[in-house]
Structure formats: C-alpha cells, structure tokens
Design brief:
Length: 279
C-alpha cells in the first residue's frame, strides 16, 4: 500500500479496493466511466465561510473553513451544484443511488437541481444532532439538523434497500426518516479532524441500507474519509476525491488504521457496528 505517483491518484491500496484521488472533483469526475458506480455519498461545500462565528468547546471560533467554502453567489453556486450532480448521475449505474448531505444554506438549491436533472427522489432524511453548538446571537433557534437527500439515478431506477436490516436496527419497527445520531466521537478524530466530518454511525446506516459487499462507492468531496473508512469496514470498494492534500493524508491514515484492524478489502462477517449487529 503506497501513494501513487500519478497526477490524480494520490493513494491506492494493493487490491485497488480503496483509492483517493487528489484534485478538483469537477475535473476528476469526468474521468470516471459512465454507469460504473453503485452509490455516491456527497457532502458538498455549504458555502458558510462568510466571516461568521460559531461556538466550539465553549469558545468562539471563526466558521471559515477555506476558500473552497466561500460562496460565489446564488447563481454560480447553483451552477456548481448542477455540474457535479450531472456527472454523478452519469457515472451511477442504472439502479444506483446518491445521498447528498447539506444544511439550509445549500440543500434547497441541491434538491431543485436534482429535480431538474431527473433524479428519482426517494427520501429526505433529517439527521438530528443531539448536542449542537449554541446559537451565539440568540436571535434564531439553535441549528441542530442536517438534511440528507436520497435519490435514484432516474425514474426507471430499481434501487436496493435492505428494509429488514434497517428494521432490525430499529428494534423491530420500520426505520423512520428522522435519525438521532451523535456527531463524530473522540476516537473518530484520533488521526486528525475535518471541520465538516461526518460520524461513522451515519455512514454505516447509509451504506449498509442500500449497497452490497463488493459494490463501488464514490465520494466526490471525501474530506476526512469517513465514507471510505466505512466502505473498508464492510467490504465495499471506494473512490474518494479530495482537493486538499492534508485531508487526503487524513483519509489514508484513517483507512490504514481500519485496514490493520479488519483486513483491507475483506467483508466483515458478524461485525458489531455502532448501530447494531450485521450478519
């Protein structure tokens, strides 16, 4: 397992089941063959780096995450959403699905773009965060949710859904679209942290609900690599795309840590997850 000397492939494991590509996803996505990916998870920029402040560990902190998170204006931001979504739609298999996470700042624009492109909207998941940072201005309700849109490639898609497994995880009842999940735990940040890192539990629920061992999952904004970590944990193949070498390194470190524990590229049988037991 070593870093690649290729221009875009930053890292690939020996079996090719896990890779990180370094660069702008709008360009990298064009190199992926059409109808080749089983599932996409995307956590695109929320365009929040506008000089605002937030509260972290009881201290006031700037919300500036980087130039990639600065808005170019409503119209340009919308064009950006259409461009990457269109590429993701192209690379999805006919029965593949896409999950897109976002806050109120971008999720409505993303949903409208998906409707215009002809995606089949399946669910809007509300991820409820039990302990969100307080609202410093005291002029709004505390922001404590994110919306995740789940969609098929087209109206003709016959998507995979492991209904019974989700029911088992929900104590024998149908799983609802409101998910009460804690933010990333401390042990998930041992190798480093990302400002928009998603919890392992969230990605486990997403990936195991609609994919099978050996399926190919792609994340065009991989960040800290949580999608890839969960893919490796459960025997799925993974392609991540990241603009920042620092976060690409973080993804690789997290993957190597998981690979050492469970075996790279191997499906885990009877594994105890943060949600429940997978047979």
């Amino acid at each position: 397992m070593s870093k690649s000397n290729g221009r875009s492939e930053y890292y690939r494991n020996d079996s090719g089941s896990f890779s990180i590509q370094l660069g702008d996803s709008l360009s990298l996505l064009t190199r992926i063959p059409s109808n080749s990916v089983d599932m996409v998870f995307a956590d695109p920029p929320y365009f929040l780096s506008n000089g605002g402040m937030t509260c972290r560990s009881g201290k006031m902190e700037s919300v500036h995450k980087g130039t990639w998170d600065i808005s170019a204006g409503i119209e340009e931001d919308f064009k950006f959403q259409v461009r990457w979504l269109k590429e993701c739609q192209r690379i999805l298999k006919p029965d593949g699905t896409i999950w897109v996470s976002g806050t109120r700042h971008v999720i409505f624009s993303i949903g409208f773009a998906m409707q215009g492109l002809g995606f089949k909207l399946l669910n809007d998941i509300v991820w409820y965060k039990r302990n969100p940072p307080p609202n410093l201005s005291c002029r709004y309700f505390t922001h404590s949710t994110e919306t995740i849109i789940w969609a098929g490639k087209s109206d003709k898609s016959r998507h995979t859904f492991h209904y019974q497994l989700m029911k088992e995880w929900n104590e024998g009842k149908q799983m609802k679209s409101m998910w009460n999940i804690l933010p990333p735990r401390k042990e998930e940040k041992v190798q480093g942290r990302h400002p928009t890192q998603k919890p392992v539990e969230l990605l486990e629920r997403i990936i195991l609900s609609c994919t099978n061992p050996g399926d190919l999952i792609l994340d065009p904004f991989s960040g800290s690599g949580t999608t890839g970590v969960v893919s490796a944990m459960h025997g799925r193949r993974y392609i991540g795309m990241e603009l920042n070498p620092e976060y690409a390194d973080l993804s690789v470190r997290r993957y190597l840590d998981v690979a050492a524990q469970v075996g790279a590229g191997e499906a885990r049988q009877g594994v105890e997850t943060s949600i429940g037991r997978v047979a």
